[in-house]
Amino acid sequence: MLPIARTTTPDAPGPHEQAALADRFTAVRERTLELCAPLSAEDCVVQPMPDASPAKWHLAHTTWFFEAFVLGGEPIDPAFDYLFNSYYEAVGPRVARARRGMLSRPSLAHVHAYRAAIDRRVLGALFDGALDDDALARLELGLHHEQQHQELILTDLKYTLGTQPLQPAYRELARSAPAAPEPLAWRTEPGGIIELGAPDTGFAFDNERPRHRALVAPYQLATRPIANAEVLAFIADGGYRDHRLWLSDGWQLAQAEAWQAPLYWARRDGELAIYELAGVRSVDPAETACHLSLYEADAIARWLGARLPTEAEWEHAATGDPNAGNFADRGRLHPDRAAAPTGGLLAQVYGDVWEWTASSYAPYPGFRPLAGALGEYNGKFMSGQHVLRGGSCLTPAGHVRRSYRNFFPPSARWQMTGVRPARDV
Ligand SMILES: [Fe+2]
User: Fold this and answer.
1) Where would I find the H helices in 166-238?
2) What distance in angstroms lies between residue 58's CA and the mean position of ligand 1's atoms?
3) Ligand 1 centre and the CA of 148: distance in Å?
4) CA distances (Å), 103 to each of 42, 57, 79, 319, 331, in order?
5) I want to staple 198 with a disulfide (CB 3.0 to 4.6 A). Which of 208, 286, 294, 322 is the partner?
6) Residue 9 has what pLDDT?
7) How far is the centre of ligand 1, averaged over its atoms, from the C-alpha of 149 (Å)?
8) Cα of 83 from ligand 1 centre, angstroms
9) How far is the CA of 381 from the centre of ligand 1 (A)?
10) With bands split at pLDDT 50, 70 and 90, how would you rate the model's confidence at 143?
11) Ligand 1 center to residue 61 CA distance, Å?
12) How many angstroms separate the alpha carbon of residue 115 from the centre of ligand 1?
């Protein structure tokens, strides 16, 4: 076993905690299967681009994570280390990321059998008291890891379905008629010396720690993320053709790939339509805008006379906001309409869209990655990426926290990403 820093309570779990952990394990594992239930075997194998892994690989990799890091011992199939290791150099070589879609074997049925076998072993070990504190901490981590992959299953599947000729639906989803959005308003924050990061107790990823102080000047934050109405106005104003609004790297990419609108937007019969997981439909101006790269988010914010917030500004402004919103469990799987703030709180802080920040994904002062192979989980990606906050409509409810740091390269568009602009005071 590879020791890692403790992420759960310091005492060994009693029978009640063991039963609760077993229930959570079962619920998370079943949820992954539910998400894949509407898919054909063919849907589960296709890899439309290197960043978007097939559902079959996600099903197997999340299972391998429990086998490799919680159970240890004799593997069910030694070849699975090579096939289903994502990026752990300490574990060994692995199939190239871009070739995960080439794995027609093991079959989908074989992967499901592998899942069931590992589930039995994990639950057996849990009830036999065979998992020590470190293994239990890794089990906890494995549940959060699987929830991250639940979101990736949906984002990657959306790219698989949304970029093929017929753009089929994942499943039917309820929608209301297009409308106008709530006006974009601003809330002033006084700033000062603020605290950010996760406290020492309770589960958090290593990249959220340690909690530390930062100096933040007074600023304003939009009361909601931008809506399609603002994106439509940006397009109509020539925003995609005006180099003055763009970061250099973004301008090069937008030119090279001929961006004229966010990902999944296309002109149909003279009007702009979007692909969502229920199929193609017209753009609703009132909806929260999504599938924006950081470059587009930054250009639209600049066009609005604003900028991206830093992650310290975001986290500070989110203080007191209930951790609730349009998460995947609501089953909408698309951002809601831009909402008005209520009770002095910002609207749509959690759920709907991951909000890009201006902050590079970097270690907090005093950051210490987990020991052993799991130290590769977050820390080695702290280069060339930006932090996103708040979770999305594809994130499982209860998965994110105020201190949660997601990260993607600035060019990424296939994730459920949007922007809440900020302004200097
Ligand atoms: Fe993973």
Assistant:
1) 228-236
2) 8
3) 8
4) 12, 8, 12, 45, 30
5) 208
6) 38
7) 7
8) 13
9) 13
10) very high
11) 7
12) 15
Q: Rounded mean pLDDT of 406-421?
A: 98
| In 283-404, beta strands by DSSP E | 354-360, 386-389
* H helix and E strand count, the chain: 9, 12
Model confidence band, residue 13 (pLDDT cutoffs 50, 70, 90): low
H or E element in which residue 56 lies:
helix 55-66
Residue 103: what residue type? L
A 10 A CB-CB count for 163 gives: 16
The pocket of ion ligand 1, defined by CB under 5 A, consists of 86
- 307 C-alpha to ligand 1 centroid (Å): 32
pLDDT at 5 (0 to 100) = 37
For range 46-68, the mean pLDDT: 98
- CA of 145 from ligand 1 middle (Å) equals 6
Q: What is the pTM of this model?
A: 0.95
Cβ–Cβ contacts within 10 Å for residue 390, how many? Answer: 28
Is residue 377 pLDDT above 50, yes or no? Answer: yes
Residue 396 is encoded by which pair of tokens? 């499982």
Query: Residues with Cβ < 8 Å from 363, sequence gap 6 or more?
Result: 207, 379, 382
Contacts of 36 (CB under 8 A, 6+ apart): 44, 55, 59, 153
CA of 316 to the centre of ligand 1 (A): 29
Q: Which CA distances in Å does 68 have to 3, 73, 170, 279, 375?
A: 13, 8, 32, 38, 14
DSSP state of 201: S
pLDDT bin (cut points 50, 70, 90) of residue 7 is very low
Q: Return the closest-CA partner of residue 228 out of 392, 84, 54, 419.
A: 419
Ligand 1 centroid – CA 405 distance (Å):
16
- Residues in the chain, total: 425
Cβ burial 229-253 (10 Å sphere, 16+ → b, else e) = bbbbbbbeeebbeeeebbeeebbeb
- Average confidence score pLDDT of the chain: 94
Output the furthest CA–CA distance in the chain (Å, rounded).
65
**Measured distance CA(7)–CA(377) in Å, rounded:** 14
User: Mean per-residue pLDDT for 78-86?
Assistant: 97
Ligand 1 center from residue 321 Cα (angstroms): 29
Position 182 scores a pLDDT of 85
